Amino acid sequence: QVQLRESGGGSVQAGGSLRLSCAVSGYFSSCLGWFRQAPLNEREGIAALDSDGSTTYADAVKGRFTISKDSAKNILYLQMNSLRPEDTAVYYCGIDVSGSYCGGLNLVDMDYWGEGTRVTVSS
Questions:
Q1: pLDDT, tens digit, 9 for 90 and up, residues 57-86
Q2: Please, is 80 exposed, middle or buried when counting C-beta atoms within 10 Å of its C-beta (0-12, 13-18, 19+)?
Q3: What pLDDT does 22 receive?
Q4: Is it the case that residue 28 has pLDDT exceeding 90?
Q5: CA 22 to chain centre
Q6: Residues in contact with 58: Cβ distance below 8 Å, sequence separation at least 6, in sequence order
Q7: Which of 12, 41, 63, 122 could form a Cys-Cys staple with 16, CB 3.0–4.6 A?
Q8: What is residue 79's three-state secondary structure?
């Protein structure tokens, strides 16, 4: 059974940093990713890490967020720097077994995801 659990969310002022973690059990390969849902907005794919180590980022977070993993611990990370109020959202980690999400950040391709962790950025 695949399970994902996010942690590390919280409140931070604009310009600050947070590191989100995602503990994964049951499956830790193929395409791993993060997506978010801001209040009153649709879910948005923001970062992906493919099995070959390649990464993909949405334009909104490129240069500020970094996705990485610790394969020994089965943990996926999202380092978020230079946070902005528009980054306020619930952040989710997910797994796409087929790998398609890593190509286009399309949430339709996500197979498993966690319950999310809330990030609030104040101005």
A1: 999 999 999 999 999 999 999 999 999 999
A2: buried
A3: 97
A4: no
A5: 8
A6: 44, 45, 46, 47, 105
A7: 12
A8: strand
